[in-house]
Amino acid sequence: MRRRLVSDAPRPEVTDPLRGAAQALHWQLGHRGYIMLQRRTHPSFVRYIDKSREYYAAHGYDKPYAWAHYADVPFCGLSKPLAESRIGLVTTADRAPREQGRDARLYAEPVERSEPLYTEMFWDRDATHTDDPESFLPRASMARQRDAGRIGSLSPRFYGLPTDYSQRRTLEHDAPRIEAWMREDGVEAAVLVAL
Amino acid sequence: MVIGSARDIVEECGVARFLFVDFPLGNPCGKPWDRGMQDAIASAALDLLERAYVPRTTIQRPEIWNPSDDLGWRDNFMRVDYSNRAALARAGQARRRAQAAAKAGQSDG
């Protein structure tokens, strides 16, 4: 049986992600007096690629979905300090029910828009819900970060890239459209939250 | 950068920076209505944005969805076992029949 072992003590906030491992070790030593080795036969995170392939195979679909994979991944550092940078938020949620045509699905909306977002696609309906939009699109959290001076500004619009199973459409049509909107708005770094 | 809860899917694709929150799909920015947790995750995302210096940097958040049973939701999601295999096969057949009927209806119309 797999078992997740949890310390009795609250885990300290990791303030520096690159020192996170050292802090976690310190926490375990400090509260337990020894390093807690966990042995596992399975990875702790859920393997969605395996799960979904087996799930659809059990439904009789014999051609599994082929997930995107890149051997090389580009990287770009911030061009100026975070406290001077404009951040744009991207969501995979829809702004309207799904029956509308696909071209109408991409959107850029004012960040203070209060109408509900629609989350009809792939998520765990048994374990949770999406009634709190802040749980999948951190507009208010990022506004508080801005008010605290952590980021320069939040883009006046957020961007919708609703879930689509076509990688070709995502790459050739959707991504350039979202990028163009971000450039219009002077966005310098994008935070994409995948639902 | 990406915030998400499907570690294998995002890492297979490969992104510059990935903040991994080990929760059921649907709430990668924190538990619903938990503003303290949501602010901590947003802040961690900005840390990662600022400090990562190579692509494929993944940081895992320490939050645990359900400290008293953190396996149940993992096992339950898209579960396939002896108890539901026949039902899933029937559901798949019914869906394919419905799709075929809809397609035939369209071409007739």
Question: Which key phrases capture this entry?
Answer:
heterodimer, A: 195 residues, alpha/beta, 2 domains, 5-stranded mixed sheet, 4 helices, 5 strands, 26% helix, 11% strand, globular, disordered N terminus, B: 109 residues, mainly alpha, 3-stranded parallel sheet, elongated
Care to describe what's here?
The complex is a heterodimer of chains A (195) and B (109). Chain A is α/β, with parallel strands linked by helices and 195 residues long. Chain A has helices spanning 20-32, 48-58, 139-147, 167-184, and strands at 86-91, 107-110, 153-154, 157-160, 189-193. In chain A, strands 1, 2, 3, 4 and 5 form a five-stranded mixed β-sheet that branches. Mean pLDDT of chain A is 84; it is low at 1-7. Chain B has 109 residues and is mainly α. Helix content of chain B is 49%, strand content 10%. Chains A and B meet through helix 2, helix 3 and strand 5 of A and strand 1, helix 1, helix 2, helix 3 and helix 4 of B. Strand 5 (189-193) of chain A pairs parallel with strand 1 of chain B.
Number of domains of chain A: 2
N-to-C terminal Cα separation of chain A, in Å? 29 Å
Terminus-to-terminus distance of chain B: 47 Å
Rg of chain A is 21 Å
SSE arrangement of chain B, N to C? EHEHEHH
By DSSP, the count of extended strands of chain B is 3
Task: Sketch the major β-sheet of chain B.
Answer: 3 strands, parallel
Q: How helix-rich are the residues of chain A, as a percent range?
A: 25-40%
Strand order of the largest sheet of chain B: 1-2-3
Count structural domains of chain B.
Answer: 2
Structural class of chain B: mainly alpha
Envelope shape of chain A: globular
Question: In DSSP terms, counting alpha (H) and pi (I) runs of 4 or more, how many helices of chain A?
Answer: 4
Cα-based radius of gyration of chain B, to the nearest Å: 20 Å
